[in-house]
Design goal:
The protein is mainly β and 138 residues long. The chain is 7% helix and 45% strand. It is built from one helix and twelve strands.
């Protein structure tokens, strides 16, 4: 089930290696998978973001095109309209696995250009949320 921007969670952001990545339009959290043999594993995270407002996140996404994908740890940050954190979902060493974009169409000329990314976490942890989202923009 995706986490989207709503009235109570008006800001959803990604943090990459402890630094602000970007605000995102949507994040789908990984499902817990139980194979027949072996320990449970996590599925993939998915996110959609606006390219014009994402610097660190765009760099990470474009590393897939350059075929030099670093494994980064990070967090999904869900905040209210005052940027106060409501939920934090941490992951460790998640390699980026997929990059996609919507088909380009002249009828969508006023829509922002967005990219969809998918990454595979090794560990997911729901942490206590406190503080504010700090995007570095004042």
């Amino acid at each position: 089930m995706p986490t989207v921007v709503t009235a109570t969670a008006s800001k959803v952001a990604l943090e990459l290696d402890g630094k602000f990545g970007a605000f995102v339009d949507k994040v789908s959290l990984p499902a817990l998978q139980f194979p027949a043999a072996g320990p449970p594993t996590f599925g993939a995270f998915e996110a959609r973001f606006n390219v014009s407002s994402a610097s660190a996140l765009l760099d990470w996404a474009m590393s897939l095109v350059r075929r030099k994908v670093p494994e980064v740890g990070g967090a999904v940050l869900v905040a209210n309209q005052n940027s106060e954190l409501q939920r934090r979902i941490d992951w460790s060493t998640g390699p980026l696995t997929e990059l996609a974009m919507d088909p380009l169409d002249a009828r969508d000329g006023k829509k922002p250009f967005t990219l969809d990314i998918k990454w595979q976490p090794s560990v997911v942890k729901y942490s206590k949320a406190s503080g504010k989202v700090n995007s570095g923009v004042t």
